[in-house]
Amino acid sequence: MASPYWDEELAARFRQFRYEFAERALADRVIAVAGGSGGLGAAVVTLLARDGARLVVGYRANRERAQALSRAIAAQFGQKLQLVEGDLAEPAVRRAYQSAAEQLGQPLYGAAIFPGDPARVPWESLDA
Q1: Do 30 and 56 touch, CB atoms closer than 8 A?
Q2: Are strands 30-34 and 108-113 parallel, antiparallel or unpaired?
Q3: Per-domain residue ranges for the chain?
Q4: Ramachandran area for residue 98 (φ above 0: left; ψ -120 to 50: alpha; else beta)
Q5: 61, 91, 98, 101: most buried, per Cβ within 10 A?
Q6: What is the DSSP secondary-structure string of 75-121?
Q7: pTM more than 0.85
């Protein structure tokens, strides 16, 4: 007996990893992205900016790369990123994230953390 809730067309798309997302579902939502200036973090920032999110983007030390990303986002989507420099482990840096988010005029909706190269973490310091 088939479920009345089963949608075979939708299931077929999911099996092919084809998904549909609402347009600009994150418009005007404030999202903080630590480690957002390079690699996967920058890709996520670009996706969030495309969807209209207001972004606080943190980076550890590479200001030039963060500013290049900020210029690219402004050119592509007309948005200005709030950039925060420093290590998220430091209380002052966390306060800077909060302050930057408050400047965007909406409560913080979400956050993502991209810590960078995991090779910098010694294996013996990891636990399951």
Answers
A1: yes
A2: parallel
A3: 46-115
A4: alpha
A5: 101
A6: HHH----EEEES-TTSHHHHHHHHHHHHHTTS-EEEEEE----GGGS
A7: no
